[in-house]
Amino acid sequence: MLTMYSTSWCGYCHRLKSQLDREGIAYDVVDIEQDEASAAFVRSVNGGNQTVPTIRIVPPNGGDEVVMTNPTIVQVKQALAGIGVPG
Q: Which side of the chain, N or C, has fewer Cβ within a 10 Å radius?
C-alpha cells in the first residue's frame, strides 16, 4: 500500500524510514538504482528528475493513489488518514 522509492545513499530517505518505523507505519522500499521501472515511475512524477524519497500510497479499496516527493512524516500521516488508513 505505501511504497517508498529510495536510494541507498539518500539521507532524507533514511530519516523518513526511521520516522515511519517509529510511527509503526508499514511500507515497502524500492531502490530506484536497482529497478529501472521504478526509476522511470519516479521520473514520471517528478518532472524527469529521480528525486527521492518519493512516496506512493495506493488505497486498499481502490480510489486515487497519492504520490508525494520528499514528504514529512506529518504529510504522510495526513495522506494516510485522508484515504481512511490510520497512520
A: N
Supply the angle between the helices 11-23 and 73-82 in degrees, to the nearest 10: 50
Question: pTM value?
Answer: 0.91
Q: What is the CATH number of domain 2-82?
A: 3.40.30.10
Q: What is the DSSP string of 23-53?
A: HT---EEEETTT-HHHHHHHHHHTTT---S-
Residue extents of the structural domains in the chain: 2-82
